[in-house]
């Protein structure tokens, strides 16, 4: 009976996570839009500058997802770890303008001091952008594996695991679309 009660509690908690993960997806894409625009003030809006921002953002998501997939089974409280990651992402977002303010003068001085060709310029842009974006985007990438671990929980047979994980992924994607629309057309 305890297993049934635990399963019901987990199902209710999982359902409550759907709107939360919609919000997480929305804020993630708002962050991407805002950070991209802030970085464009430093690097410009060339195709190369846009590509380096996107590469750092997507690379961070991939790194975070890969890392979390390896360690998620050892995480005792995946929901608490998820909350900690979301808090860290929010704190990074608050610090981002200051971090960019520290990085920008170095970038400007470097480009003035050295005549960088397009390849070297792209490499340095990717390095600077990576330093600024990989930490929060890796945390973003780690959130789905943690929530998936929570959603699957202790179900030995994995019954319904695909449905629960699929719902979370869909919720996050819907949030991402909403976040893009809000950031791009309204904010």
Explain what you see.
This protein has helices at 2-43, 47-71, 78-113, 118-152, 161-186. It is elongated, with a radius of gyration of 19 Å. The chain has 5 helices and no strands. With 187 residues, the chain is an all-alpha fold.
Sequence-ordered SSE layout with sheet pairings:
Blueprint: H1 2-43, H2 47-71, H3 78-113, H4 118-152, H5 161-186
Helix pairs in contact: 1-2, 1-3, 1-4, 1-5, 2-4, 3-4, 4-5
Task: Choose one word for the global shape.
Answer: elongated
Cα-based radius of gyration, to the nearest Å? 19 Å
Encode the helix/strand succession as letters. Answer: HHHHH
Q: Mean pLDDT, as a whole number?
A: 84
Unreliable residue stretches:
none
Offer a few descriptive terms.
187 residues; mainly alpha; 88% helix; elongated
Short description:
The protein has 187 residues and is mostly helical. The longest helix has 42 residues, at 2-43. Helices cover 88% and strands 0% of the residues.
